[in-house]
Amino acid sequence: MRKLKVALVGNPNVGKSVLFNQLTGGSQHVGNWPGKTIEKAEGIFNFLDYEMSVIDLPGAYSLSPYSTEEKIVSDYLSKNKESIIVTVVDASSLERGLFLTMQLIERGLRVIVALNMVDLAEEKGIHTDTAKLSRLLNVPVVPIVAVHGKGIRELVISVINQRNKKIKPAKKKSNIKQVYKKVNHIANQSQHFSKIRVPLREKLDTLLLHKYAGYLALFLVIALFFSSVFFVGDILSSYLSPLFSLIENLELLSSFNPYLNTMLISVLEGVVAGVSIALPYLIPFYILLAILEDSGYLPRIVFLMDNLMHTIGLHGKSFLPMILGYGCAVPAILCCRILGSEKQRFITAFLVTLVPCAARTVIIFGLVGAVLGLKWALLLYLLNAFILFVLGALLSKYLPGKATALIIDIPSYKLPSFLPLLRRTWFRTKHFIWIALPIIVLSTIVVNFLEMVNLLNPISEFLSPVTVGILGLPSIVGIALIIGFLRKELALLLLVSLLGTDNFELVLTPVQIMVFTVVSMFYVPCAATVATLYKEFGLNKTAFMVAGQITLAIILGVLVRFTLEHLVLF
Which of 322, 328, 327 is nearest to 301 (CA)? Predict the structure, then answer.
């Protein structure tokens, strides 16, 4: 078969990834760009006697390297001039898409314009003469509706027809004013508008972006989002959690080497932990996130929260990962990829690891809420929000690096397409399975091995200057904190076993209960989260975060201890 390289280029939210899914189907590979945390999606598409290697480049507004995404696109095009470039343009926002298209044409590349969402443009009364647009640009223009697969065959044929077109020498780069002037002229010549009734979905923004009602609607959407994730996740987790009891009763190779037996049990425990804890929440989260993305509401959330996030040196896009962190830190950290600068990704991920996830919530309500009352549990959430605000402001002020401003396109509302939604969910979930799960298994092996060789108690004694001397906790609590690295709620369950009772009032003072919970909230997150941090940010930055979390947890534990003892609130 003859081979062709095809690169999909376009602004964010123009349906580029939907087109990629339509072309490649299940034959996709999702990784990262070298040295970056931005996804790199590649796939194979066979048509007639051609094998087409398709790459979905990050969304960009221009080829000027002002953001990581734009630099990746520009570098790829410079090194892969033989690729046929399909630039995806939203028919409703022709001028915006043509700015990038003109820059591609100026580079002398083989360019095809895929004019997407022509159906939505027609509904708005926007009509494009594609033949005239093609003549004005001097490149092929193919109208498509990617979400429904319309025009895909014609687009592929156009790609094949471009295979023998010579790559031209790059033209002298026009200045921005010249490019905008050309773009404006071409758009005016190739489009005309008719008067129509405004579709109902376009009227939604009068409510959803309203300065008061918009925030109420946002609150309801977020509440529905997370209640759905927790509801579905709890159901799935409840069906899968009995797997732990099966492992506890399982004695593999008991007559053989005990070390091998421990390793095999640890592998099973690690796999079951990932499957029964993370995946039940991860899958519904990814499905609902894809619905928010494809419907067009996600950019509106970012827009609404931008002013609030600016107070801590971030912008609206950082709000989503931080909110998602209340469910699970793993998808929240992966969601940080949407941010425009490395500094903002790092700060947001750091803050996400301090947000009380579902497992930490078990400790907060299962210990503080059950023993001291709901008001003390809610007070811890307020303390957490205050710490996040202060820490975010400090990190934004003192960490080196640039913080990009918010530039966001507000797309039209669309009904999500079922199959592309499921495909995206599967590839995101598969990404977690291949990266985080092996490290969870390895961590489980290490902890179980330490327990087997009776090193947990010596480690607990080693930690006693901190746990007993500084924090005022019983020495045995150190083991619970260590085991909590695997699963945060295990710290509470193990505490019952270590203390010999689930009536914590008999063995712990109210101050000790508060201190233990505060430390559990802020110290090192679970193994899955650390694995994800390592994969996204590398060893040095992950080590910095972990060291910062331990230090912060100890400082806050000491402050809570001496404040409560001094005030004699219990």
Answer: 322
When computed from its CA atoms, the radius of gyration of the chain, rounded to whole angstroms, is: 27
Phi, psi at residue 29, to the nearest 5°? -130, 125
Residue 353: which of 469, 485, 191 has the closest Cα?
485
* Pairwise CA distance, residues 565 & 377, whole Å: 18
- Interior/surface letters 394-411, b for 16+ CB within 10 angstroms, e for the rest: ebbeeeeeebeebebeeb
Length of the chain measured in residues: 570
Distance CA 399, CA 387 (A): 17
Q: What whole-number distance in Å separates Cα of residue 186 and Cα of residue 130?
A: 11
Instruction: Say how far apart CA 372 and CA 390 lie, in whole Å.
Output: 27
C-alpha span between 272 and 451 (Å, rounded): 19
- Percent of the chain past pLDDT 90, that is, above it, reads 26
Of 21, 13, 45, 295, nearest to 148 by C-alpha is 21
Where exactly does CATH 3.40.50.300 map onto the chain? Answer: 2-201
Question: What tens digit of pLDDT does each residue of 546-562 get?
Answer: 999 999 999 999 999 99
Q: Which residues contact 473 (CB under 8 A, 6 or more apart)?
A: 467, 512, 515, 516
Read off the pLDDT of residues 420-470 as tens digits, 9 standing for 90 and up.
788 777 876 776 677 656 766 776 677 677 777 878 778 878 888 998 899
User: Domain 2-201 in CATH: superfamily?
Assistant: P-loop containing nucleotide triphosphate hydrolases (3.40.50.300)
Question: How does strand 126-128 pair with strand 191-193?
Answer: antiparallel
